[in-house]
Amino acid sequence: MNATPITDQMAPDFLLAVEGLTVSFDGFKAVDDLSFYVDENEIRVIIGPNGAGKTTVLDLICGRTKATSGSVKFKSTELTKLKEYEIVRKGVGRKFQNPSIYDDLTVFENLEISFPRGRGVLGALAFKRDAEVRERVQHVAETIFLADQLNRKAEFLSHGQKQWLEIGMLLIQDPELLMLDEPVAGMSVAERKKTAELLNTIIKDRSVIVIEHDMKFVEDIAHKVTVLHQGKILSEGSMAKVKADPKVIEVYLGH
Amino acid sequence: MQSESFTLRSKDLIGVLILAALLFVILPAILDPFRLNMVGKYLTYAFVAVGLVLCWGNAGILSLGQGVFFGLGGYCMAMYLKLESSSIEATKIQSTPGIPDFMDWNQITELPFFWVPFKSLGFSLAAVVLVPAILALIIAFALFKRRVGGVYFAIITQAMAAIVTILIVGQQGYTGGINGITDLRTLHGWDIRTDGAKTILYFVNGGLLIGCILLCQFIRRSKLGRILVAMRDKEDRVRFSGYDVASYKIFVFCFAAALAGIGGAMFTLQVGFMSPSFVGIVPSIEMVIYAAVGGRLSLLGAVYGTLLVNWAKTSFSESFPELWLFGLGGLFIAVVLLFPNGLAGLYRSYVEPRIDALFTRKRSPGADAAPGAAPTLAE
After folding, report:
1. Considering the domain boundaries, does residue B104 fall inside one?
2. Do B224 and A124 touch (CB under 8 A)?
3. How far apart are CA A254 and CA A246, in angstroms?
4. Which strand (E) or helix (H) includes residue A77?
5. Which of A231, A238, A254, B363 is the most buried (most CB within 10 A)?
6. How many angstroms away from the CA of B241 is the closest CA of chain A?
7. Are A103 and B230 a contacting pair, CB within 8 Å?
8. Judging by DSSP bridges, how do beta strands A177-181 and A207-211 pair with one another?
9. Does B240 contact A89 at a Cβ distance shorter than 8 Å?
10. Does some domain include residue B14?
11. In Å, what is the CA distance from A179 to each residue of A98, A118, A251, B51, B193?
12. Prediction ipTM score
């Protein structure tokens, strides 16, 4: 790999480019002129005190909240104009903070619904549970440690298993950008370890944005850390650099 | 997985067969034509209740305006029948012969333009399904695309029921007003007022109902059915799994409206008239109660619920007419508080396990029937 000139026209863009992103709720700027870039195959962790606007950033990227101004470009497609389901179909997956799964359906059915086929009304009517679907569900279920729970109703899973199930529902979509909001919150120590292991296996061939409070966990997985404070970037860089930043220590890590 | 869904399917089918036996063999054998016609009338409401199971039970969209769709289907049928019974010879004493009598009484001298296509039987039959579905489409599109849901949606459908009733009553010259469209005689030359015709219509009605239930079962077994349930649980998760949630809600609401329209048309045929008293808020809420009593998650339960509540209504209001509405209200409260899944829920928790146990024991004598093991009805 000889040095490729950065000015090359063909140089790959960032997978995700957030520029000047602002959203205000009744005059309060929850996210204020935010810009950051995520490379392909990068794990980016966003940290920051409560109310820093972390979850709002994910909401803006996936279309749940409409931006007041600014742009979000995913593989040079502008996302701010698209509907939520269109953003998903472009390859952006989002996990919510509280496990968001379908309690009344089985684990198999939960995963099957996320399988990216037959997403229109007629497509869903004609959808067949064929070998490809079954294999893929089985494969993902093994990855998320739920292979023996496929026929169980999702409401009977433990909290940690529900979190894994939702991660599995995203995996089956095979998104290029995966966004996880506090994936280990409320998990036991053993479950955290297993989740870190899980995240390390699923990040291959995709980029991941993670919001997390657990510093140990962040150190384990992050390539690059972005610290948010009052809707703005306070610091950005490697974990070591961010940890040494006096501004970060003052507002976040210090107490 | 495979065998479980197979078992479910055969259980569904057995349920439909039992209902078919009741409707086509048992009831006709024990009831006189008058009572059978009455059951036929009740069963037209079951179309609405079955639609509500999909729309409310599965997808979580409560509509308090299903009477509108039932009424529109009924009116489409009634308009055809009325035109047929308003031939020039039959209405020659009117100042304008050849138009329905109520128009003549209201000084209308020409058939209104929107009545003209209802001279065709084919158009009228299509309209029975399409007119309710199109109105539902307009409402659903306007509301679901704006993410109006839950109780707000229910209130708006109720307002719609009030509006449509007022419209029908107010436009007496075009709709027959508060009396509705009455004095219907023949369907394409076939007299529908005889006992024989009523019995045939009862069977046609039953056949259509069974067909609609099978169609609903197909939808519920498809991925679409599971998406409806998923949407009811976690709408956002479905949206962020790449689905346009609004289009699914629009579909199920229109589908329920079309079913209600078929019920309304069968009502008109069997009862011989259609009036705004089947369109308004009270009948719309009664239809929700049928589904609730039968079990809002069970297609067959909704049919039994409809039959039971209507049978109770007829017997009670014959003896204590002023008490009936209190009884109905009490029944609704009891269902919501004590058995939220209705008759079907009671059946599922108390009767079905015993039947399953019975079958399991028969199939494997000596072997311990493990509680909670998958029922093996269909191996």
Report:
1. yes
2. yes
3. 9
4. strand A77-78
5. A231
6. 6
7. no
8. parallel
9. no
10. no
11. 14, 23, 25, 38, 66
12. 0.90
The per-residue pLDDT of chain B, averaged, comes to: 91
For residue B174 the two structure tokens come to 């075009």
Compare all CA atoms of chain B with the CA of A170 and give the residue at the minimum distance.
Answer: B241
CA distance B248 to B364: 44
Cα angle: B332, vertex B335, B341; to 5 degrees: 130
Asked if B233 lies within 8 A of A84 by C-beta distance, the reply is no
The yes-or-no verdict on residue B199 having pLDDT over 50 is: yes
In a domain, residue B318? The reply is no
Q: CB-based contact (8 Å) between A131 and chain B?
A: no
Surface of B (220-249) touching A: CB under 8 A: 222-224, 226-227, 229-230, 232-234, 236-245, 247-248
How far is the alpha carbon of B27 from chain A, nearest alpha carbon, in Å?
Answer: 35
SS3 of B93, please? coil
DSSP A160-204: HHHHHHHHHHHHTT--SEEEEESTTTT--HHHHHHHHHHHHHHTT
Are A120 and B247 an interchain contact pair (Cβ–Cβ within 8 Å)? yes
Q: Record the tokens describing residue A18, joined without a space.
A: 């957030």
Chain-centroid distance of CA B346 in Å reads 22
Count structural domains, chain B: 1
Amino acid, single-letter form, for residue B32: D
Within A22-171, residue ranges assigned H as helices are: 54-61, 84-90, 107-114, 121-126, 131-143, 159-171
Q: What is the pLDDT of residues A179-231, one digit of tens each?
A: 999 988 888 888 988 988 888 888 888 999 999 888 888 888 888 999 999 99
Q: Identify the DSSP state of A154.
A: G
Which pair of structure tokens corresponds to residue A255? Answer: 């107490």
Whether residue A169 and residue B237 make contact (CB cut-off 8 A), yes or no, is yes
**Tens digit of each residue's pLDDT (9 = 90 or more) over A46-58:** 998 888 899 999 9
DSSP code for B375: P
Which among A84, A124, A127 has the least Cβ separation from residue B240? A84
Please name the member of A114, A121, A173 whose beta carbon is closest to the beta carbon of B248: A121
Chain B positions touching A64 (Cβ under 8 A) are 236, 240
Separation in Å, CA of B190 to nearest CA in chain A: 39
Please report, as a single letter, which amino acid is at residue A117: R
> Taking 90 as the threshold, does the pLDDT of residue A9 lie above it?
no
Distance between CA atoms of B100 and B111, rounded to whole angstroms? Answer: 8
Tokens of B313: 């209504």
Contacts of B237 in chain A (CB under 8 A): 96, 100-102, 166, 169
Phi/psi at A44 (nearest 5 deg)?
-110, 130
Tokens of B283: 């009948």
Closest CA to B36 of B284, B216, B202, B248: B202
Cross-strand bridge partners of residue A228: A233
Residue B367 domain flag = no
For testing contact with chain A, the best of B8, B243, B250 (most A CBs within 10 A): B243
Of B289, B320, B283, B367, nearest to B62 (Cα)? B289
Burial class of residue A227 in the structure, from the number of CB atoms within 10 Å of its CB (0-12 exposed, 13-18 middle, 19+ buried)? buried
Q: How far is B11 from chain A (nearest CA, A)?
A: 18
Neighbours of B130 (CB within 10 A): 18
Angstrom CA distances, B84 to A100, B168, B190, stand at 57, 21, 11
| Candidates 3.30.530.20, 3.40.50.300, 3.40.50.720, 3.50.30.20; CATH matching A42-52+91-253 | 3.40.50.300
CB contact under 8 A, A113 and B227: yes
